[in-house]
Amino acid sequence: MLPSAVSRGLSCGRRVRIRGAWAAAPAPAPANAHARTESRGRPGNGNLSAAAVAFLAAIQLFSHHEKEQQDPEDAIILLIKKSKLSAMTGELEDADRYLHQALKLAQQSQNNQAITYTYTQMANLAFLRGDLLNAEKLFKAAMSQLLQAGTPEDDNAMIEMSLKLCSIYVSTEQHGLAVEGYKWCIETLEEKVQREKDVPEVSLSAAEKDNTRLLLGMCLDSCARYMMSQKQLVLAESLYEQALAISQQVQGETHPQTVVLMNDLATVLDMKGHQDRAYEYVTRASNLARETSHPDQCVILSNLARVLMHRGQYDKARCVYEEALTQAESKADMPVIQHIRSGMEELKAKAQKSQEVRESSH
Fewer CB atoms inside 10 A, N or C side of the chain? Predict the structure, then answer.
């Protein structure tokens, strides 16, 4: 049986940075904000996990029986699995071709659930490929299918797709639509969270309630980054504070997403010139990153160094930058390495200017 078009069917691959349980694509981060590690390049079979290799073997074993399959749904499922594997190995054109075959079979068999699910996969793939115009059309088609099937407007799957549309509107500079979309997602989820508080657990599990709260956190996080890019720092700070509170309550203080949000909030505060509060948050984030071997540790350390620099603690900033650079170089993460080196150049200039001022005053 095909899975329903809910959040686990909406993942568009590693777009996207470490988001913990939050997987929807965010608005682009502002130039002065942190850079996070992303998947890059075109991975080959040598980069496949053991699970992916096993899956590939299974696909190869059963592919020659495809023509003998009588159940259209089985054929659709196999095509979708092939598409996902192709996307994992970087064969995006093959992934798209398999999805089009799956959609054709779903339409021929009038399987509305399969049509909706395939549309979501096609939309996510288009999003991953940067084909934003097509992704927008496909997300809207999937949402239309869900509504026709009786799915409520405030269903989490609907809101996740709406959030991805917001990201598309940001990327295509349709700012009015982006703002209205974020507003709708956040307000709808806030009402839903309040409503679900009174629903007994026999009707709605704690895990399902947490999923809705985490989706609200994801919307707040994405909107906050967009507001940072628009220099709406007061609003960005408030949104980050709310997202951080949700992550701490639902996922805990040491969860990777919580640590990232502490770091992001520190970035906003630093941009506002509130270096003391920024230092408080980024120090906590960097300590947790070290304790938990956070995958974005080098970026968080780079942010700590930047805050130290803005506080005039140049020697400490230099030491932290060097630690961050060593970690980034061990991963051969060139964008992060460049980001750190740029910060180190800025630090060198500021320290030299400070030295000149001190010498001239004597």
Answer: C
The answer to whether the beta carbons of residues 151 and 2 sit under 8 Å apart is: no
Q: Provide CB contacts within 8 A for 5, sequence distance 6+.
A: 113, 116, 117, 120, 142, 146, 157
Domains in the chain: how many in total?
Answer: 1
Q: How many CA atoms lie within 13 Å of 223's alpha carbon, on the beta-carbon side?
A: 28
**Residue numbers of the chain with a pLDDT score lower than 50:** 1-47, 53, 61, 64, 66, 68-69
Q: Cα separation of 262 and 255, whole Å?
A: 11
Structure-token pair, residue 165: 């549309």
Q: What is the dihedral of CA 293, 296, 297, 300, to 10 degrees?
A: -150
Does residue 275 form part of some domain? yes
pLDDT at 322: 97
Whole-number Å distance between alpha carbons of 228 and 240? 10
Residue 207 makes CB contacts below 8 A (sequence gap 6+) with: none
CA distance 2 to 115: 10
d(CA 348, CA 353): 9
Instruction: Check if the beta carbon of residue 269 is closer than 8 Å to that of residue 278.
Output: yes
pLDDT at 7: 34
* Residues 219 and 163 sit within 8 Å (Cβ to Cβ): yes
Q: How far apart are CA 22 and CA 209, in angstroms?
A: 15
CB 24 within 8 A of CB 136: no
**Domain hosting residue 340, numbered range:** 252-357
Q: Are 158 and 4 in contact (CB under 8 A)?
A: no
pLDDT for position 70: 54
Is there a domain that residue 342 lies in?
yes
Residue 276 has what pLDDT? 95
Residue 325's CATH number: 1.25.40.10
Q: Is residue 57 part of a domain?
A: no
- Report the candidate in 288, 226, 287 with the shortest Cα–Cα distance to residue 251: 288
CA distances from 205 to 72, 243, 250 (A): 34, 22, 14
Q: Are 223 and 22 in contact (CB under 8 A)?
A: no
